[in-house]
UniProtKB/TrEMBL annotation:
<keyword id="KW-0812">Transmembrane</keyword>
<feature type="transmembrane region" description="Helical">
    <location>
        <begin position="90"/>
        <end position="110"/>
    </location>
</feature>
<keyword id="KW-1133">Transmembrane helix</keyword>
<dbReference type="Pfam" id="PF10129">
    <property type="entry name" value="OpgC_C"/>
</dbReference>
<feature type="transmembrane region" description="Helical">
    <location>
        <begin position="169"/>
        <end position="187"/>
    </location>
</feature>
<feature type="transmembrane region" description="Helical">
    <location>
        <begin position="319"/>
        <end position="338"/>
    </location>
</feature>
<feature type="transmembrane region" description="Helical">
    <location>
        <begin position="142"/>
        <end position="162"/>
    </location>
</feature>
<protein>
    <submittedName>
        <fullName>OpgC domain-containing protein</fullName>
    </submittedName>
</protein>
<dbReference type="InterPro" id="IPR014550">
    <property type="entry name" value="UCP028704_OpgC"/>
</dbReference>
<feature type="transmembrane region" description="Helical">
    <location>
        <begin position="199"/>
        <end position="220"/>
    </location>
</feature>
<feature type="transmembrane region" description="Helical">
    <location>
        <begin position="46"/>
        <end position="69"/>
    </location>
</feature>
<feature type="transmembrane region" description="Helical">
    <location>
        <begin position="344"/>
        <end position="364"/>
    </location>
</feature>
<keyword id="KW-0472">Membrane</keyword>
<feature type="transmembrane region" description="Helical">
    <location>
        <begin position="232"/>
        <end position="252"/>
    </location>
</feature>
<feature type="transmembrane region" description="Helical">
    <location>
        <begin position="280"/>
        <end position="298"/>
    </location>
</feature>
Length: 386
């Protein structure tokens, strides 16, 4: 194969990543909707990881195609400038989403006389100290429930700016990332939040998963990187063991609590330490095991990935930022629907409506980008978060 052909093949957009991002976006909406029956079949019920881990890993993967490729072509300053602009857009999107979400929840609480909404979603400070709350929100120190994911991505993409300068030394980049993750866990350090405590997703810990995804993306596009693991029965067995252990843990603690009570005390005590905030090693191993199985046993050029049924998920994944923002609003709308009637008909209507609107947002965003059909070129610059 000619060098140019090889390069083009390596820089093609990976449909597996986009489809998985689309699935993760759908799972986030379902998981954020109390009473949704589909919540029992999302990833968090079967593994010690969930859609958030998948999304962060894939954001790093996409970042290698979007920004590392740009740095290779146009230089670090150009790529860093583009990345900084993207961080600014994410910040504006986060503030806009917070304003709309607060209005949605506040109006519903007043209209339906359910002030518990404000307390449950941690929005009551807006009623008590509106001006101070707005200031803290602008500083990212106030993060209501469900609105703590975009601040995480803002910091991760900001960390990618200096990370791009080390893209040609993947061992050093991942070594520094792992050292930071370990140091943060040992020191129990986190960004502070207003009213005490730290961020629910500690960016300084989650950056390791992001940069692992970045390294995988670098390897997939043929840039200097650590070698990708090849298909191996031993690695497959190890991945299956990690995921199987996680499944057994979920069965014992979530599905059949009586079974968990019969386990040795050391096991439930260990599972209680598997934290999400600072990216526990077991959660990290779980999502990496799942990524290995998908990457190894689902061919990148499989016809089904570009078929009619996969296209809606692929389009959602390609436009993840607007889809995510609308999904947050839809999750609360769906909650209101299910609180009015949680029968099977409303469950079906609610989930179909949410999924249909997410797909619609994806296609409208695709049309606005003017990219046309799924591209046959490198990832566009803005695709690291949609």
């Amino acid at each position: 194969m000619e060098p140019d052909a090889t390069r083009n093949k390596l820089t093609l957009r990976d449909p597996r990543a986009d489809i998985c991002r689309g699935i993760a976006l759908w799972m986030i909406v379902v998981n954020h909707t109390p009473g949704n029956w589909l919540g029992s079949i999302t990833l968090k019920n079967f593994a010690l990881s969930d859609a958030t881990e998948a999304f962060v890993l894939l954001a790093g993967y996409a970042g290698a195609f979007a920004y590392a490729a740009r740095a290779d072509r146009l230089g670090w300053i150009n790529a860093a400038t583009s990345l900084t602009q993207r961080v600014g857009k994410l910040y504006v999107a986060h503030i806009f989403l917070m304003v709309v979400f607060t209005a949605q929840v506040g109006y519903s609480a007043a209209t339906l006389d359910r002030g518990a909404y404000l307390d449950e979603l941690a929005l009551d400070p807006f009623a008590e100290q509106p001006y101070r709350t707005l200031l803290e929100a602008l500083l990212l120190r106030f993060q209501p429930a469900f609105l703590d994911i975009l601040p995480l991505y803002i910091v991760l993409l900001a960390l990618l700016v200096p990370g791009l300068a080390l893209r040609k030394w993947p061992g050093l980049l991942l070594g520094l990332s792992a050292a930071l993750w370990l140091g943060v866990r040992l020191a129990d350090f986190n960004f502070p939040r207003w009213h005490g405590g730290g961020w629910f997703f500690n960016p300084l810990a989650w950056q390791l998963l992001f940069f692992l995804g970045f390294a995988l993306g670098q390897a997939a596009r043929g840039a200097p990187s650590l070698p990708l693991p090849r298909r191996s029965p031993w690695l497959t067995a190890a991945a299956g063991l990690v995921l199987g252990a996680g499944l057994l843990a979920m069965i014992a603690t979530e599905w059949v609590p009586s079974l968990g009570e019969r386990l040795p005390e050391a096991i439930p005590a260990f599972l209680a330490t598997v934290d999400k905030t600072a990216m526990h090693p077991w959660r990290l191993a779980s999502i990496l095991a799942l990524a290995y199985l998908v990457a190894t046993y689902v061919p990148r050029d499989a016809a089904a990935l570009r078929g009619r049924w996969a296209r809606p998920l692929l389009i959602m994944g390609r436009n993840s930022l607007p889809v995510f923002c609308v999904g947050i609003l839809l999750s609360f709308m769906s909650r209101l629907m299910l609180e009015a009637d949680d029968g099977w008909a409303m469950q079906l209507a609610s989930n179909l409506l949410c999924l249909g609107l997410l797909v619609l947002v994806g296609f409208v965003s695709e049309w606005q980008r003017g990219d046309g059909p799924a591209p046959r070129t490198a990832l566009p610059d803005k695709s690291a978060l949609g």
